Amino acid sequence: AAAEPAATAVVTGASGGIGAATARQLAAAGYHVVVTARRGDRVAALAEEIGAAGGSAEAQVLDVTDRAAVDAFAAGLAEAQRAADRGPVQVLVNNAGGALGLDPVAEGDVDEWRQMYETNVLGTLNVTQALLPALTASGDGTVVVVSSTAGHGTYEGGAGYVAAKHGAHVLAETLRLEIVGTPVRVIEVAPGMVRTEGFSTTRFHGDEERAAKVYEGVAEPLTADDVADTITWAVTRPSHVNIDLLVVRPRAQASNTKVHREP
Ligand code: 8X3
Predict the structure, then answer these.
(1) Which residue, 198, 22, 123, is CA-closest to 114?
(2) Which of 156, 256, 258 to mutate to test the pocket of ligand 1 (most atoms within 8 A of CB)?
């Protein structure tokens, strides 16, 4: 008989940074990985790269804030599984999200706050709701929410992002309460200072100089791979082990506001 197709893992926000690194590591761990992001050329290149490295991946354009698109995406995965082209969807990594701006509350841009809530919270809600039936039906599902240390404490200028990441944290905690007894785990990974090509550049609207200042003098910020490693570790524990929350910071960062910088 033909071998069963590998279980499927879906990663959102996989066009770069933590999402792309997680997709590579989950593929190396044996999952068929569906890499999704708004930027189709990026996820297509990633899927190709994973395939060339001996893994199994496919790319799909997905804007997590577009509910109809998310539902169509979920229906497509269900169809592929019915056609037996794909193994069950066992893992969802809600990684899409990010920060915009670093303004004090008094000057915060309400549109940026709205966008951050849309991606970090409602995007996670959309994809989680759409895939939860498949994750449950798989008999061994895992939902990962990539939140942030900003989901667990605040800092000046961060309120919009901090509020959104607290929202993502609450979503994870509440979902875990609500679905206990079903075969689905809920894992939250909360990274601190990670240096990726996109995070701070996006936050500062393309201002590379200001983005570089975030990491100035910090001996070694985390890399996307460091966080992907943590996510992959948590996902690959035996099914009955639920890693509720992992807070991951570089050694040089003691809290959201206490960062050691070399002169
Ligand atoms: C990223 C960490 O410190 O920029 O989620 O909020 S921080």
Answers:
(1) 123
(2) 256
Q: What is the DSSP letter of 193?
A: S
Residue 86: both structure tokens together: 């794909």
31 is catalytic: no
Spacing, Cα 148 to ligand 1 middle (Å): 6
State the pLDDT at residue 26: 98
The complex scores an ipTM of 0.91
Classify residue 108 by burial, with Cβ atoms within 10 Å: 0-12, 13-18, 19+.
Answer: middle
Rounded distance, CA 6 to CA 181, Å? 25
Domain 8-248 of CATH type 3.40.50.620: no
pLDDT of 85 reads 85
Q: What pLDDT score does 196 carry?
A: 95
Half-sphere exposure of 59 (CA within 13 A, CB side): 23
In tens, the pLDDT along 44-83 reads: 999 999 999 999 999 999 999 999 999 999 999 999 998 8
For the chain, the structural domain boundaries read 8-248
Q: Which atom of ligand 1 is nearest to the CA of 165?
A: 5
**Proportion of the chain above pLDDT 70, given as a percent:** 99
Q: Is 253 exposed, middle or buried (0-12, 13-18, 19+ CB in 10 A)?
A: middle
